[in-house]
Amino acid sequence: MRWRKDIAYTGWGRALTASGRVARPVTEQEIDTIAPAFGNRRSYGDAPLNDGGAVLDMTAQDRILAFDRKTGLITVEAGVTIGALARILPPQGWLPPVMPGTGIATVGGAVAMDVHGKNHHNTGSFCQHVTALTLLQNGKRRKITPDRDKRLWAATCGGLGQTGIITQVTIQLKRCPGEVMVVTERRVEDWAEHIAHLDASDATYCVGWIDATATGPKLGRGILEEAEIGSGLAPARPKRRSVPLDAPSWALSGPVVRAFNSVYYHRVPATGRTVVRAFEDFFFPLDKIHDWNRLYGKRGFHQFQCVVPLDRADTLRAMLAEIAESGLASPLAVLKRMGDGRAGYLSFPMPGYTLAVDFPNRESARDLIARLENQAIAARGRIYLAKDGLAKGPSVKAMYPEHPEWVAQVMKADPDGKLATDMVRRLDLRRL
């Protein structure tokens, strides 16, 4: 296995960096060193980083190993992307059951974060549809299942890659009756209406875009999207554009963001509309802008995402009011209702409402995020580790009461800490 030395790399937020040795094994058999593994590094913070140490880039291991077209059971290598499956499988009548907001995420990463999608309220998290995993632990190959290895399974799903190097994943796909998305869009005037629509929706896929700059009676306004899979001619795949340079600091200044959000809000007619979209355009809207994270400039950005219980929606409203008053939010703000599906000790989902907002990497934004995290704790909620780069260990441990069970399994699987990452060290997750 060839190693490249002194390679600099980041997570998607680009606010935190690392450097060290990087190897990109093409096959599982090439892996001769136990080290933290990453895919396309779509986690925003330091989850995929190991500054000063070695890391394994798993993106070359991207083969489909087995696929039963009758049952929809598929086994893939960890480096296969969600987007690749979303392109390949629909003509065969199947679709990944859960897809995050980017198709560039790898299947291995989807397991390590137990990702969720726009259908979590009725479908649950990604790992609830995984039937088997293959791990490399201390150089030995081990296949595990949720029935036979319950505790190790729960520590692996959403477990930040700390129980072994994920090399193969078997997924139970969902039936796909067509190759397009039929999407109904409607304007939502304020917070109360947004929550009411989320509660009333019986659509398979449902997500709300929030204008995080709106204040006063417009607080919480946005666009609600409800969607179903349909049949018919798919629109042309959206052309990919790129951001060739790091944007200047004024590109996402308060006035610019407010103006963009107003235009974006009014793009949907007051009476609403129903449109047909390609799968990629609906599930992965930002993937058509290559390196969109460069819009935040050289300093990068942080995303805050939390979930609070259903009876604490007022806390989320208060958070949004503070965000709007700060003038720090970007155009990227999302509100969803979640169900009770989660597979692991550190899996993010819980029944409730989740809010995700991007902020440029500034001291004032970091201070705001710290306050928002404290509010999430007080509301018995939690933050999403796939997005975090700032939290403190005691806060995260308080949010995840099953953390001690996770520690017990991790210390059995990797007692020497060979798989520890910058996030694990920052949060001191391997200790109670």
UniProtKB/TrEMBL annotation:
It comes from the Bacteria. Residues 1-176 form the FAD-binding PCMH-type domain. Pfam families: FAD_binding_4. Keywords: FAD, Flavoprotein. The keyword Flavoprotein applies. InterPro entries: FAD-bd_PCMH, FAD-bd_PCMH-like_sf, FAD-bd_PCMH_sub2, FAD_lactone_oxidase-like, Oxid_FAD_bind_N. GO terms for molecular function: FAD binding; oxidoreductase activity, acting on the CH-OH group of donors, oxygen as acceptor. PROSITE patterns: FAD_PCMH (PS51387). This is FAD-binding oxidoreductase. It comes from Salibaculum griseiflavum.
